[in-house]
C-alpha cells in the first residue's frame, strides 16, 4: 500500500460513514458538473477520486445508457462506494477500483482503455501532485472525449474573512485550493491541443472547467 493510500484510509476509516451527509453543504457544483457531462449514448464515464460513489450513482441515474467507472486511492472509501452502488441497484453498470490517480492503467483496472467523459470533483485539492492527475486524465480521453473539473476556488468575489476562514478550515482536512488551476489547465490544453472553458461560479467559491478533445465547444460548463 502506498503512503497516500495509507493516509487516506486513516483519514476516512470513520469519516466515510458521514462523508456524504456532511459534504453536501460545501462541495458545491457537483450536480451541475455531472449534468453537463452529456455523454454519448452507450458512452463511458470515469470519475477520478470517486470516494463513496455518490457522484457515480448520480451520473448512472442521469445517463441510463452509459457505463460508469471510478477509482480512488482509499480502499476504505471504496468499501462505502461498493455498498452504496449495490444498494442503488447499479452493480452491473458501475465499477470501482483502488488506484493512484496520478498513474493508473484503466485497461488493467476495468478492461477499458479510454473514456468519453472523465470528471474530478473536489479531489485535486487533496492530491499534492494534482497536475499529474490532470495529465493522466487527459491521456485516457477518447477522440471526442472531455475532462470536467470542479473544485474550491479562490473566493475572490466573497468577503475576505470568508475566504480566510474557509481556507483555514479546509487545511484541517489537508485540503488546499489550487489557486493556479485556470493557468495550469489552459497550459495543459495548449500542450495537448485541447479546448478549455473555465468559469468561477458563486463569486469564485468554486472553479469549474472543461477540457475537450474537440476544440469546437458546443456548450458551456453548467453554472452552479
Q: What is the approximate shape?
A: globular
Mean pLDDT: 88
State the order of secondary-structure elements, H for helix, E for strand: HHHEHEHEHEHEHHEHE
Strand content: 15-25%
Count the E strands: 7
The level 1 CATH classification is Alpha Beta
Q: Give the low-confidence spans.
A: 14-22, 218-224
| Overall tally of domains | 1
At the fold tier of CATH, the topology name is Rossmann fold
**Could you tell me how far the N terminus lies from the C terminus, measured between alpha carbons in angstroms?**
37 Å
Tell me about the largest β-sheet: 7 strands, mixed
How many H/I helical runs?
A: 10
Main structural class: alpha/beta
Q: What strand line-up does the widest sheet have?
A: 3-2-1-4-5-7-6
CATH architecture: 3-Layer(aba) Sandwich
CATH homologous superfamily name?
Answer: Vaccinia Virus protein VP39
* Helix percentage: 40-55%
User: How much is the radius of gyration in Å?
Assistant: 16 Å
Amino acid at each position: 500500500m502506498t503512503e497516500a493510500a495509507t493516509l487516506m484510509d486513516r483519514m476516512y476509516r470513520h469519516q466515510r460513514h458521514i462523508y456524504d451527509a456532511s459534504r453536501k453543504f460545501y462541495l458545491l457544483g457537483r450536480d451541475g458538473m455531472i449534468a453537463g457531462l452529456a455523454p454519448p449514448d452507450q458512452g463511458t464515464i470515469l470519475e477520478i477520486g470517486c470516494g463513496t460513489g455518490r457522484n457515480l450513482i448520480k451520473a448512472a441515474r442521469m445517463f441510463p445508457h452509459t457505463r460508469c467507472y471510478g477509482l480512488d486511492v482509499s480502499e476504505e472509501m471504496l468499501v462505502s462506494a461498493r455498498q452504496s452502488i449495490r444498494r442503488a441497484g447499479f452493480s452491473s453498470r458501475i465499477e470501482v477500483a483502488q488506484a493512484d490517480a496520478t498513474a493508473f492503467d484503466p485497461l488493467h483496472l476495468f478492461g477499458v482503455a479510454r473514456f468519453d467523459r472523465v470528471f474530478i470533483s473536489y479531489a485535486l485539492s487533496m492530491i499534492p501532485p494534482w497536475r499529474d492527475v490532470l495529465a493522466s486524465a487527459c491521456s485516457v480521453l477518447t477522440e471526442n472525449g472531455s475532462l470536467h473539473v470542479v473544485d474550491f476556488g479562490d473566493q475572490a468575489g466573497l468577503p475576505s474573512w470568508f475566504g480566510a476562514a474557509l481556507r483555514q478550515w479546509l487545511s484541517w482536512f489537508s485540503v488546499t485550493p489550487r489557486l493556479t488551476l485556470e493557468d495550469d489547465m489552459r497550459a495543459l490544453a495548449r500542450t495537448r491541443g485541447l479546448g478549455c472553458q473555465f468559469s468561477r461560479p458563486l463569486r469564485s467559491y468554486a472553479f469549474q472547467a472543461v477540457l475537450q478533445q474537440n476544440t469546437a465547444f458546443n456548450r458551456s460548463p453548467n453554472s452552479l
